[in-house]
From TrEMBL, chain A:
Protein name: SUF system NifU family Fe-S cluster assembly protein
Organism taxonomic ancestry: Bacteria, Bacillati, Actinomycetota, Actinomycetes, Propionibacteriales
Cited Gene3D superfamilies: 3.90.1010.10
PANTHER family, A to Z: IRON-SULFUR CLUSTER ASSEMBLY ENZYME NIFU HOMOLOG
Ranges of residues in domain NIF system FeS cluster assembly NifU N-terminal: 9-129
Origin species: Nocardioides deserti
InterPro entries listed in its UniProt record: NIF_FeS_clus_asmbl_NifU_N
CDD domains, alphabetized: IscU_like (cd06664)
The organism's place on the tree of life at top rank: Bacteria
From TrEMBL, chain B:
Entry-linked InterPro entries: Aminotrans_V_dom (IPR000192), Cys_dSase_SufS (IPR010970), PyrdxlP-dep_Trfase (IPR015424), PyrdxlP-dep_Trfase_major (IPR015421), PyrdxlP-dep_Trfase_small (IPR015422)
Organism of provenance: Nocardioides deserti
Cofactor(s) essential for the protein: pyridoxal 5'-phosphate
One Pfam family, short name: Aminotran_5
Keywords: Pyridoxal phosphate, Transferase
Domain Aminotransferase class V: 31-406
Protein name: cysteine desulfurase
EC number: 2.8.1.7
NCBIfam families referenced in this protein's UniProt entry, alphabetically: sufS (TIGR01979)
Amino acid sequence: MNAELDSLYQEIILDHYKNPHHAGLRDPYEAEVHHVNPTCGDEVTLRVHIAEGTVVDVSYDAVGCSISQASASVMTDLVIGKPVDEAMSVHEEFLTLMQGKGTVEPDEDVLEDGIAFAGVAKFPARVKCALLSWMAWKDATARSLEETR
Amino acid sequence: MTLPGLLPELEVIRKDFPILERTLAGGMPLVYLDSANTSQKPQCVIDAMVDHLERHNANVARAMHQLGAESSEAFENARDVVARFIGAPSRDEVIFTKNASEALNLVANTLAWATGDLAIGEGDEVVITEMEHHSNIVPWQLLTERKGATLRWFGLTESGELDLADIDSLITERTKVVSLTWVSNMLGTINPVKEIARRAHEVGAIVVVDASQAAPQLPVDVTEVDADVLVFTGHKVVGPTGIGVLWGKRSLLEQLPPFLGGGEMIETVRMERSTYAGIPHKFEAGTPPIVEAVGLGAALEYLAAIGLDNIHRHEQAITAYALDGLATIPGLRVLGPLDAARRGGAVAFEMDGVHPHDIAQVLDSRGVAVRAGHHCAKPAHARFGVQSSTRMSSYLYTTPAEIDALVEGLEHTRAYFKVG
């Protein structure tokens, strides 16, 4: 009975949920955004610091379920330290996985711990949870690039 | 098992609701504890709607043929049933809307357009409460913003009841409207509507009662509760979606300007200007939700046959049993009154260490359907310092065994997330 549920709540997800990486809001940053999932009320405030085309830091304060919290944690692991272009393509890859309704085979070399979210794609109601912080990051990054242009 | 107050024919009643026989993924039987969100439908409602579509379908009030007459009769009969159900002094005071939200918006919008005594402007005040559903907050925010009036509200006590301590300074000569829910969809609180209506009427304010959660589980008498307007939605009273009810006192409805313009709401139309139909048709522009009205009529007759007093006793018995069961879960906090006699059948709670989404997901894997989120009551959640909650809500078909399944599911959820 719990096979479906276990595919959603992978150990990796629960680990990130209990011990989120890069949590908290930090300086410096060029852009800060606040995103909300209006259906459930989950919220994230997220800051991006970009220097010389590289994502130097992503910091956040998030309230939400295990999926949205773990996703924020994994996202920061994946994008911090990467050139913006490369980080954006990781974002695209994650988005494709989430929108694939469970049919997309994730690439562990690109998504690392993010592959644990493959099971989430089978639960349409939870896809938004997994994407909340990623969308906030994309928005903040775009604004940050505007700022520094 | 049985409890004092349960509907004696509970097993028979459950057989009236075909969906309750369903099994879900993994062969789990459905445990439906989301009736405050929408109720399930008995066979008689489904049959009435199918029969209407199969045998009597035609537009109403404008088809000069036999089917048109049958359809009009069925539609208008539903209005009679609604009028009886809420004790309306006149059937003409019953207006069909799309849902309770549209009914509330109709009142707020037509008040914004009203002139004379009803006009609202700077210096005037509208009073609501902190426990309202968003549909009874936002229309009043829009109204007061548009007219330069002021929105004020009753706060809540720690136990989740309206704080009436400052009622006399809140409802004053400046108050034009007092709009409040009878039963909270989040806290479950049953509000002293009559007491508040008395104060509102002393200062000449209009009293609007949102009975969306009350109509399913309490006997409703619009005169007894002393409302000027009372609204509820069809789908929470075992009827279909797509239909709501606005009841208003004749004198008020006649004074308010029309809401939507179109067919059926007119008396005559010339290119220069039109004159309008009398109530209720003045507020029912366009082809109405006909089969939905037929379904709603069947639903209210079904509830009336069982008896609202009996349904209320059943809800209280199940709610008390649920509160006892929830109290056994470590780290669980119920939001709202803990005395089943003072509340309705929606029970929202938090559980330490597990987010409501995750609770609902694990329960769903066991066939237990609850709601997780802010339940369209963000201010009420904010009042208690919580962002979202899990809500179980029972109805006339809920059994104690289903509450047991919920409590077992919550214990399992704690184990699954390794809490405690």
